[in-house]
Amino acid sequence: MVEISVCFEPLFKGKTDLEKIQIIQSLGYKAIEFWDLAGKDLKGIAAYCQKSGLKIGICTLKDPWGNIRLHADTDSYLQHFSESLELLKLVGSKRVIVLTGENNGHSKEVQMNQIIRNLKAISSLAEKAGIVVCLEVLNSKVDHKGYFLDSSALGFDIIRQVNSPSIKILYDIYHMQIMEGDIISTIQENIELIGHFHSAGVPGRHEHFYGELNYRNIFSAIQETDYNGYFGFEYWPTLPDEKSLEKLREYFLDE
């Protein structure tokens, strides 16, 4: 079963995290997600979700855009991951996002080998904790210039080489439409390697019903696979936030 989760970070400017979560739930959504584990009231978020039945789809490691990403040396990355894992336990998410660094001047092979080495190193920790680590592929044309992992084919190749049930791809439809297109076929051919979806309209990263993608068809295609996870809304609204989420719910869930 595919469940929708709403990333609250770009929404409801000026509201606290708990206020954002409460509004999202009041609009009929059943799951939320967020970015940085650091600097949040994780116990408060977890307590509210446990009491209300709201689910947490995914979040990132702490300080996701800092110096310690998958290009780092293995000892440093293991320490960073272990520290994030302790925070993750507080909030109870069973999925976590990891990122590569930018191209660092070494060959693609050298960079890939370090990423694979680090993912293998954390895989046993992830398996023991019962979580799925989701490696995100981003676009390097518009939003993340210089980012190393900007190809879904390269991402899937990395996951196959790591070969752990706890290490999968976060397939961001917005980013991959910008980089390569061929969305539905790519999803269908690699669904067993995908642990989470992100989505937004292209171009602009706004509502899904604007732009060049038919998200109803994409969502239906995912539902027809064996995927059993979250489909995340990670976008910047052009409409008032509540109206935007109301219209998105109608677009995806109403016949």
* Number of structural domains: 1
Relative helix content: 40-55%
CATH evolutionary superfamily:
Divalent-metal-dependent TIM barrel enzymes
- What order do the helices and strands follow? EHEHEEHEHEHEHHEHEH
List the helices and strands and how they pair.
Elements (H helix, E strand, L loop, with lengths): L2 E5 L9 H10 L4 E3 L8 H11 L2 E2 L2 E2 L13 H18 L3 E4 L9 H22 L2 E5 L15 H11 L4 E6 H7 L3 H8 L3 E6 L15 H9 L6 E4 L7 H13 L2
Parallel strand pairs: 1-2, 1-9, 2-3, 4-5, 5-6, 6-7, 7-8, 8-9
Helix pairs in contact: 2-3, 3-4, 4-5, 7-8
What tags apply to this protein structure?
single chain, 255 residues, alpha/beta, TIM Barrel, 9 helices, 9 strands
Could you walk me through the main structural features you see in this protein, from its secondary elements to its overall organization?
This protein has 255 residues and is α/β, with parallel strands linked by helices. The chain has a single domain (3-253), classed as Divalent-metal-dependent TIM barrel enzymes (TIM Barrel), CATH 3.20.20.150. The protein is built from nine helices and nine strands. A nine-stranded parallel β-sheet has the order 3-2-1-9-8-7-6-5-4. The longest helix is centred in the middle third of the chain and has 22 residues, at 108-129.
